[in-house]
Amino acid sequence: MDVTISLIPYEDKVILHNLIQLYRYDSSEFDGHALTKHGLYSYKYLDHQWTEDYRRPFIIEVDGEIAGFALIILDVPKEYVKLSNDEKTNVISDFFIMKKFRRKGVGKKVAFILFEQFGGTWEVRQTESNKPAYSFWKRVISDYSNSGTIKEQKLQGEEWNGPVFVFES
User: Fold this and answer.
1) Which of 9, 66, 143, 149 is the least crowded, having the fewest Cβ atoms under 10 Å away?
2) Tens digit of pLDDT for each residue in 29-48?
3) What is the pTM of this model?
4) How many structural domains is the chain composed of?
5) Residue 79: its pLDDT value, please?
6) Going by C-beta distance under 8 Å and a sequence separation of 6 or more, which residues neighbour residue 54?
7) HEC states along 83-111?
8) 90, β-bridge pairs
9) How far is CA 26 from CA 43, 95, 96, in A?
């Protein structure tokens, strides 16, 4: 199984928009996202993926077939993250693997690629009720850090409600 990630060019933003529809549908049972009156899920940061230098939209492919996406934010200043004491932190903003490719090591491989490519401090958040995401990230980060220091804390407030992992890559 050949797993690759590549940046999504602006010209292909419709691909990301379509994948976000699947992602929002899939996660709506955990985060309560609702359809607009046009039958779509909104995502206010779509264009930001190409207009803000610190964002990176990646498409994930398995053997040449689209398998999901990863949206990351690089070098987030200290005042915008909750748990890291470092000057700048990388954040997994959104991460989606289509059901057909889950439980086959695709998500773990993609996470490892991203952690290696963009070294430093990482913050990974999960929605409080999304137990599958929590289990996935706890396992992946533990495997990656190989018993390194991982901070875990639950945040509760207007900006975020749920567990957060912080670790070094």
Assistant:
1) 149
2) 988 889 999 999 999 999 99
3) 0.90
4) 1
5) 58
6) 73, 74, 75, 76
7) CCCCCEEEEEEEEEECHHHCCCCHHHHHH
8) 122
9) 14, 12, 9
* Structure-token pair, residue 96: 């989606």
What's the distance, CA 149 to chain centroid?
21
Q: In sequence order, which residues have a C-beta less than 8 Å from that of residue 169 and are 6 or more positions away?
A: 90, 115, 116, 118, 119, 120, 122, 144
Fill in the amino acid letter for 159. Answer: E
pLDDT in tens, 70-84: 999 998 766 566 555
For residues 141 and 108, what is the distance between their CA atoms, to the nearest angstrom?
9
Domain hosting residue 64, numbered range: 3-168
CATH code of the domain covering residue 50: 3.40.630.30
Six-digit token pair at 44? 């206010």
